[in-house]
Design a protein that fits this description.
Low-confidence stretches: 1-34, 74-79, 91-95, 736-746
Largest sheet: 5 strands, mixed
Helix content: under 10%
Number of helices: 5
Oligomer: single chain
Strand content: 35-45%
Length: 836
């Protein structure tokens, strides 16, 4: 499998809030280490024995979703997990909102208000009101990493969605819907279409022909996505366009080349832009008005900056750079490179990198349209890092920008910009988070969206620190007023107002060993829950410790551990556990010191057991000698326990799925919680058996777990792509040993008949007849055409083998609706129509 070695450089717009701190390198005074974020996430998943990540992840997904839940757990409310802060987007200054990084967008040919948007870790979403509200379409998929999406221009109900984010997450293949996104099939897995995708393109002259581009070239299907053939091998972020007047002609860019085909991708030319040397990523745009005019936004392979805007006036046969008066990609062209041409004007082109630029005369003169440093209520603002620019061909003047802060919209072809279209999108990429001891407020660090604060009863997060937000910690004493959070590398900030305001400067002492040693992209640290002044920090190689809230900082280890995890015990802050990372000679072992507070005299003990690379370690809050570790990667044992201060570790035989274990937490009563690639599991028997906590939370990657609340009644979970959640763990039933039998083959529930169908609008009711194989909890729910839940018709009952219920349709407008019956471990869907 080929992985794109993608380079990341992220910056975040400065908020106009008084408490928001602007990062020093947001004005490009400094350059970040561009490869570190990609390497950070990739190393975690690759650290096990199974390094075929897409296949391993899919196997683990099947294992996880097949684990039966106890009968008592299955009757818990579907809202047992709840979205923290209530809102799925967050406001930065009261005038706009941001979301996690979107990767693709597609438009409905019959209605310009219908859009489909894919997020890098947040799945596929749909709106029917041009972005005012959104609904998730992919909550049951085995990958939320979106690469490309397309609507068949000849049939608005056929949608293709290719998974695999180009920048840090592999996918599991292609999904297809034939009913506007209600139901989906999975016609091709990642081994067939590629692991990281960039585009899906449907031939407008022949809907059976579909193309997918990705990190290793282009693949083609001639049977509407059922079978695929790789027609172009071209490493890099590959991008392609079809000639709208003759779809046999295709132009593709990637791997430092621009190539051309005149037989629908069967054969390809050599680099038709060989005269432009030093090319890296290439993003293309072809004019629908005049297909002889093709544009290319081209990155410089040596500097990462922009080589400029290229143009061809002969349908892509020859090329020249026509403008490069500004480095609009700002040395990150492999991450930010977008280009689009107005479908109604061949001279109106927009391109983006850090900001958006445009021309109305084919590139003779170019104007800067946006400035990420502006206040977000201004018409010249979009979030930084432009990944996709797309004109809606069915809505003149409409232009969408997909950025690290979500979706932004212009109704003037990019000349001015309205507020964002992010409200309701639960796609924030949280790296870590924490909650106050009484859960009155929370903090979370987001990829390129800073550190965010929310009061428990508020409906929005507020950004209080810019840049790339990382791990966070809130003191569990004194009302949680002392908080810590990280920017990139060895940069730690501290707050005495619970994260509502922060120290302006990095609190790492300039004369400390850590300052010269440096730290990974997302620096790991931990704060003792019983003492907010006791802080352990992992550098690249060593462990550093403070007893005075990081006013001073001492190096307390001499072994190069390359720490993958560290933890300060609540019961004794002098006890620190550290997992040795993959670069260490002791990789896979866990170290512990019981006298970290002695600073330079700290003594370390290496475990006699090799556990694998720990992603998270937590000690029993009442006994520092007892600790638990989660182990990352695939093909390893994911849960370990010690009762002797880490000298020996055991991995109980259990039913955990083989998924990348990312986080672990323990409640004072001994209940254990483990987070992985698709959610959270609980054990009440010290790890011997585990049960999924699935109700109310998407099947998404967990980055941090914390037990919080006045009575330790809440579990906080941060996700990388779907926001932040909490669940009341005090109300969960005790379920060990009570598991239902798997349904017998053929014993499936059925919706036998819906009558009348079609029904007449404003009539009274329709009757729904169903058949159930066994008694048990059953729900019947009514949805509209795009997946909005309208009403629950039946819930938590144990009906007879055959039954019926009714749905009041007197207030439903004409359109298509869906009845979803869930019972016996299955869900079935039937459609009915309401007509005038």
């Amino acid at each position: 499998m080929k992985f794109l070695i993608t380079i990341f450089l992220t910056i975040t717009c400065a908020s106009v809030l008084a408490q928001t701190t602007k990062r020093a390198d947001e004005d490009w005074g400094l350059r970040q280490r561009l490869t570190e974020r990609a390497a950070y996430w990739r190393a975690i998943e690759m650290s096990g024995t199974d390094t075929n990540i897409p296949e391993a992840k899919l196997r683990g997904y099947k294992q996880f979703t097949a684990i039966p839940r106890s009968k008592r757990m299955m009757i818990q409310s579907v809202n047992s997990w709840e979205q923290v802060a209530g809102s799925q987007a967050y406001s930065r200054n009261g005038t706009g909102s941001v979301s996690g990084r979107p990767s693709c967008i597609a438009f409905d040919p019959s209605n310009p208000n219908y859009l489909y948007m894919g997020a890098s870790g947040g799945g596929l979403w749909k709106t029917t009101d041009a972005g005012k509200t959104w609904v998730s379409l992919s909550d049951s998929w085995s990958s939320y990493a979106m690469g490309g999406v397309a609507v068949d221009p000849n049939n608005r109900l056929i949608i293709y969605a290719a998974t695999g984010d180009m920048y840090d997450q592999v996918g599991d293949g292609l999904y297809k819907s034939e009913d506007g996104g209600i139901n989906w099939t999975h016609p091709a897995d990642a081994s067939v279409i590629g692991y990281q995708c960039n585009q899906v393109v449907v031939d407008p002259s022949n809907s059976s022909v579909v193309y997918i581009t990705g990190t290793d070239g282009m693949r083609k299907s001639t049977d509407a996505g059922m079978t695929w053939k790789q027609n172009l091998q071209l490493d890099g972020v590959t991008h392609m366009v079809l000639d709208p007047s003759n779809t046999q002609t295709i132009i593709a860019g990637g791997g430092g080349q621009i190539v051309r085909s005149t037989d629908a991708g069967e054969n390809w030319s050599s680099d038709v832009a060989a005269n432009i040397s030093g090319k890296n990523t290439v993003t293309l745009a072809i004019s629908k008005k005049d297909p002889t005019r093709v544009y290319a936004s081209i990155a410089d392979g040596s500097t990462g900056g922009s080589l400029g805007l290229g143009r061809s006036d002969d349908n892509g046969k020859t090329w020249a750079i026509i403008w490069n008066h500004e480095n609009y990609m700002s040395n990150q062209g492999w991450y930010d490179n977008a280009c689009a041409v107005n479908p109604n004007n061949a001279n109106n082109v927009v391109m983006g990198g850090l900001d958006i630029y445009g021309t109305g005369n084919g590139g003779t003169t170019v104007t800067r349209y946006t400035s990420w440093g502006e206040a977000s209520n201004l018409s010249s603002f979009t979030h930084a890092d432009i990944h996709v620019l797309a004109f809606n061909p069915y809505s003149p003047g409409s232009l969408y920008a997909l950025t690290d802060g979500g979706i932004f919209f212009s109704n003037s072809n990019g000349l001015s910009w309205q507020q964002s279209k992010n409200d309701g999108l639960a796609t924030l990429l949280f790296v870590g988070g924490d909650a106050a001891p009484d859960f009155s407020f929370v903090l979370g660090g987001c990829q390129d969206n800073g550190i965010n604060h929310a009061y428990a009863n508020d409906r929005t997060f507020v950004q209080t620190y810019g840049g790339d937000g990382g791990n966070c910690s809130i003191s569990q004493e004194d009302g949680g007023q002392i908080a810590y959070s990280t920017y990139i590398n060895a940069d730690l900030h501290k707050s005495t107002t619970g994260g509502f305001a922060w120290d302006i400067d990095n609190v790492i002492p300039a004369n400390s060993a850590l300052a010269s040693e440096g730290a990974p992209f997302y620096m790991k640290f931990d704060v003792a829950e019983s003492d907010a002044n006791a802080v352990a920090i992992a550098g690249y190689y060593y462990v550093h410790y403070s007893t005075d809230g990081v006013n001073s900082l001492s190096k307390i280890s001499t072994i190069q551990m390359f720490p993958s995890a560290l933890h300060v015990a609540a019961a004794d802050p002098a006890v620190v556990y550290v997992g040795a990372g993959y670069q260490s000679a002791a990789s896979g072992y866990i170290y512990v010191t019981k006298n970290a507070s002695d600073l330079t005299a700290a003594k370390w003990t290496k475990s006699t057991t090799k556990t694998g690379i720990a992603s998270s370690i937590v000690a029993d809050p009442n006994n520092a000698a007892i600790a638990y570790a989660s182990v990352q990667g695939y093909g390893v044992k994911h849960f370990w326990k010690t009762t002797d201060y880490g000298k020996t570790w055991v991995a109980p035989k259990n039913n955990l799925p083989d998924l990348n274990a990312t986080a672990i937490a323990v409640a004072p009563n001994g209940d254990l919680f483990l987070g992985h690639s698709y959610g959270v599991m609980r054990s009440i028997d010290q790890g011997a058996s585990w049960e999924p906590l699935r109700d109310g939370i998407p099947l998404c990657s967990i980055t941090k777990l914390r037990v919080r609340g006045k009575n330790h009644e809440y579990l906080l979970a941060t996700t990388y792509g779907r926001g932040m959640y909490r669940i009341n763990i005090a109300n969960l039933p005790r379920t060990v040993g009570v598991t239902p039998s798997a349904p017998t083959t053929g014993e499936r529930p059925r919706i036998v008949h819906i009558s009348p169908n079609p029904a007449i609008a404003h009539s009274s009711k329709v009757s729904i007849n169903y058949s159930l194989p066994t008694e048990g909890p059953t729900t019947i729910v009514l949805f509209d055409e795009i997946g909005h839940e309208l009403k629950t018709l039946m819930k938590d009952v144990s009906p007879a083998e055959f039954g019926s219920t009714e749905a009041d349709i007197s207030e439903l407008p004409s359109g298509s609706y869906y009845v979803v019956l869930t019972a016996s471990g299955y869900a079935v869907t039937e459609k009915f129509v309401v007509t005038k």
